[in-house]
């Protein structure tokens, strides 16, 4: 790893004497260090390869905590500690999901995954005719008469006409999250959901569902986009078609887990805290690289870069590696609860949970006059081709802090390929380009430096 502490200090002193823009010089030093360092890539590789599939509460998630805690300690923060919390683990089971459809043309296997949090089908599985819908409104029109005893097939695709795939994901995601309970309302015995991705392949994508406790719980699976297209086409010509699927998933006993917290103490205002977060848990089918191993690396690099470059923040910079974002957000809730109990002043909260493709900019939730000051930061990032600064609302783990009036910020990388990997077996270390990982890390550290140094959210 190449260090540039001495060159940075030399340039810093030179530009100070000649009245140059010191902040731009610091950012240049951050990028220079990050882009030649092996640390971020090596840390991500270790996390993904030694602790893949980190469902909250699992043994592998505890191993991941140990890996990242040790890596952070090597970076030299003032404090590193674990914050206790309780998780509610779910297991896919030891057997793979079996999904078959039977038509007049024969028997065909589908590529599928149980949706996270789903109940199992039981040893016999379930088999029934299928009814296809593309909205809850269509389901309601069909009613119990046409749904009872059948399997509902939610087949609304992510809209390719939306330029932002994140918007397309949000627009179609309701069917995976709430589809099982909505279908059960009309007597369905199971749910099949089209995977939430714009990719056309045979790779299913999982994710979370939420049951309505006042409605019967039924099993739910996602199938690949190509399988969804084929199933939809066949249904139009074969009304006798039936689907069989079997899952072995189950909820496990509550388990103790942790958030990882590390701090660099502020030199002038140590009681004002900048929270910088990402989540370490992931779904079990991949390595949790883009979601959200990369985010952990981005925020960890703030500590390493500040220490190696001799950057001393005015406020305390607190890195939080959250547990359980994917399922129940117990890590986020625990952190917010502790902030409230201790009456801590969180100056701002930043999260990286959108992958690590090419960074484009940042979102921020604050109001005027701070918002104009935030937007003015764009000039510092122009040389690094970050230009999309916008009104955002933060990511999931820092969102509970909004009720305390905390400004929320988030990293905005390019999203065009993100949902190719999201919640699937393709979310592996190899899906992350080393240079894009480093560019996101440098952008994160630079933003934290600027919002602290320039008092973006007030003195």
Would you write up a description of this structure?
The chain has 459 residues and is an alpha/beta fold. The chain folds into two domains: 5-89 and 253-453, Aminopeptidase (3-Layer(aba) Sandwich), CATH 3.40.630; 91-251, Glucose Oxidase, domain 1, CATH 3.50.30. The protein is 36% helix and 23% strand. It has 14 helices and 18 strands. It has helices spanning 5-17, 22-36, 39-50, 59-74, 136-147, 165-172, 174-184, 225-235, 289-309, 330-342, 370-375, 378-381, 418-421, 434-453; strands at residues 79-87, 90-91, 98-103, 106-109, 112-114, 126-133, 151-154, 190-194, 220-223, 242-246, 250-251, 255-264, 269-279, 315-322, 345-351, 359-364, 388-391, 408-413. An eight-stranded mixed sheet has the order 1-12-14-13-15-18-16-17, with helices on both faces. It has an eight-stranded mixed sheet with strand order 4-3-10-6-7-8-9-5, with helices on both faces. Helix 9 links the parallel strand 13 and strand 14. Helix 2 packs antiparallel against helix 14 (434-453). The longest helix is centred in the middle third of the chain and has 21 residues, at 289-309.
Short description:
With 459 residues, this protein is an alpha/beta fold.
* CATH fold description of the largest domain: Aminopeptidase
User: Regarding CATH, which class of the largest domain?
Assistant: Alpha Beta
Question: Class by helix and strand content?
Answer: alpha/beta
- Cα Rg: 24 Å
Total domain count: 2
CATH architecture of the largest domain: 3-Layer(aba) Sandwich
Q: Tell me the major beta sheet.
A: 8 strands, mixed
Amino- and carboxy-terminal Cα gap: 37 Å
Q: Are there runs of 5+ residues with pLDDT below 50, and where?
A: 1-20
Q: Helical residue percent?
A: 25-40%
Average predicted confidence as pLDDT:
94
Let me know the number of strands: 18
| CATH homologous superfamily caption of the largest domain | Zn peptidases
Strand % is 15-25%
Strand order, sheet with most strands: 1-12-14-13-15-18-16-17
Helix count, per DSSP? Answer: 14
How does the overall form come out from the CA principal axes? elongated
